[in-house]
Amino acid sequence: MINNDTLRAIRYMLDLSDARVVEITHLADPGFALTKEDVQAFLRKDDEAGYVECSNAVLAHFLDGLVIHRRGRDDSQPPRPVEKRVTNNVVLKKLRVAFELKDVDMHAILAAAGFPISKPELSALFRQPGHKNFRLCGDQLLRNFLKGLTLRLRG
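Given the sequence above, the corresponding structure tokens read:
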């Protein structure tokens, strides 16, 4: 899924202002260069003037900041390195951690969006990429997960 679409969906889901998106991103790395104008450019449609593609670094910092925003910072652990490449699987993992979702929650969210999957299919999404049962998360699955999570949070 395109990073801009992911950012747009999460922003809508949580009803975040542009300034709040910047604040959440800075939770992961206070020195990361991101402004309110950058966020506005990311949220434009791709055919609008001023559209800018959201980089993996921006989305990774935002997702890490979202985890810290929702769960708090754990000072007993060293900070995790920021993901270099943000895949749909990484987005799914970060959202699962940020919202403290269990398997049953994940199944309920996907079922609410009209996209039920089996337990083995779900667990395959969270395996390491080298594992024999690893499965890539497709755009349709991530879109439906974001839709179901939005339904759960916004009603």
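DSSP finds eight helices and no strands in the chain. Try to locate this feature in the token string yourself.
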